[in-house]
Every structure is written in structure tokens, then in C-alpha cells.
Specification:
heterodimer; A: mainly beta; 4-stranded antiparallel β-sheet; B: mainly beta; 7-stranded mixed β-sheet; globular
């Protein structure tokens, strides 16, 4: 069973509008971390935002915020005021704490975001 | 501060050839890892290291070797390249295995 699910293969958003990228996860580990990475067409993986499973407040980093709904096991990324440079592939990832000596990140399939001028 | 660097950026190999993908970081991170990215499969962990002299296998280790003689460097060796190893390879590092991982720019490998 997939542990990280991103149901939107591709999305379009108008420049300056907000957009939400969906991510749901599955784990029985009470301690875990959730991450979002951006991969532009140049190929590098850029860290955007992190949310710990015990964090009481939703994480925010500039125009990025993470809508964390623990009971629903969802960790959606919200990008406010979209810019043309936001066009990229976005990956949601999870790291479980138990039995994870390797610190392995489990990635979703990604969502390709296109920002229209 | 260059962060995580990888060389080469692109490589073409013939089946059976061997090569080493280089990874270096200048952030004094203890933890380093190698992932491969295949279309439709996301990134998967190949090998990781929690410090100099300590390495272990990840999810897809077959056909790859690693070593960690210094904190800065973590090379990945392909022993006998196969077409199934055509992929994009990412090196990542962090202060610890429960900290945020920062990725290098990737190496695109094509095995013919």
C-alpha cells in the first residue's frame, strides 16, 4: 500500500492566485515528519517546508504553508500568491521515526504545477 | 558554502561498465544518503551513512556499493552497470538521520 499519495498529477493556477497541492499519508508510527520538496525543470530537489507529527501549529515558510490535518492524515501544501517561478514538480515526503535508522524519506508520485501568466 | 555537490551531471555507460558517482558536502553533516528517481516511482533510498566509516543498505541496494572515509564525501559505485540502473541519482545530507535532508543537483545516468 502506498504510504504517500498525491492524487493530482498536474495542476494549473493563475499567477497571483493561491493553490493547494494535496498529500495524504499512511503510517502507524506515532512520530513522523512530513516534508515538501520542489523540483524545477532543472532537476534539483529544493526543500520547502517541514511539519512534525507532534507540532501543534501548521508550518509556514514565506508563501508556503502546510495544512496539517492529523486525524485525516493529510498534509496539503498551500502556495499563496503564485509566481511564474513556482512552475515545477512538487513532492510530498514522509519520514517515520521507528525502525528507520536510515532516516529514509518516502516520497509521493509528485504533482506538476503550472502557473499561467 | 557550496552545499551538496554531485559529479558528473550526466553520464552514459555501456552495460557491464563500472563507474563512481561523486557526492560531497561542506556543511559538516553527519548523515548522507543516495536516492534514485525513476519515472512514476518517486525517489527510493539506495544506501546511507550516519557518519564516517559507517554505511548501511537502503531500500534498493543491489548493484551499488558505498564507502564513507571522510565526513565530506560519499561516493556511490556501480559495479557492473545494467539498463535497469538508468535513472537520476540524488545525494542528500543532513545533520542527523531525523533532520531535514538537503539534496544535491543530481546525476542523470543512461545505461545502454
Amino acid at each position: 500500500a502506498q504510504k504517500i499519495t498525491q492524487t493530482q498529477p498536474g495542476m494549473f493556477v493563475q499567477e497571483k492566485e493561491a493553490v493547494t497541492l494535496d498529500c495524504t499519508y499512511d503510517t502507524s508510527d506515532p512520530s513522523y515528519g512530513l516534508f515538501w520538496y520542489k523540483q524545477p525543470s532543472s532537476g534539483e530537489m529544493i526543500f520547502l517546508i517541514y511539519q512534525g507529527s507532534y507540532d501543534q501549529q501548521n508550518a509556514t515558510e514565506g508563501r508556503y504553508s502546510l495544512n496539517f490535518q492529523k486525524a485525516r492524515k493529510s498534509a496539503n501544501l498551500v502556495i499563496s500568491a503564485s509566481q511564474l517561478g513556482d512552475s515545477a514538480m512538487y513532492f510530498c515526503a514522509m519520514r517515520e521515526a521507528l525502525y528507520n535508522q536510515g532516516g529514509k524519506l518516502i516520497f509521493g508520485q509528485g504533482t506538476e504545477l503550472s502557473v499561467k501568466p | 558554502n557550496a552545499g551538496v555537490t554531485q559529479t558528473p551531471k550526466f553520464q552514459v555507460l555501456k552495460t557491464g561498465q563500472s563507474m563512481t558517482l561523486q557526492c560531497a558536502q561542506d556543511m559538516n553533516h553527519e548523515y548522507m544518503s543516495w536516492y534514485r528517481q525513476d519515472p512514476g516511482m518517486g525517489l527510493r533510498l539506495i544506501h546511507y551513512s550516519v557518519g564516517a566509516g559507517i554505511t548501511d543498505q537502503g531500500e534498493v541496494p543491489n548493484g551499488y556499493n558505498v564507502s564513507r572515509s571522510t565526513t565530506e564525501d560519499f561516493p556511490l559505485r556501480l559495479l557492473s552497470a545494467a539498463p535497469s540502473q538508468t535513472s537520476v541519482y540524488f545525494c542528500a545530507s543532513s545533520y542527523g538521520n531525523q533532520e531535514t535532508q538537503y539534496f544535491g543537483p543530481g546525476t542523470r545516468l543512461l545505461v545502454l
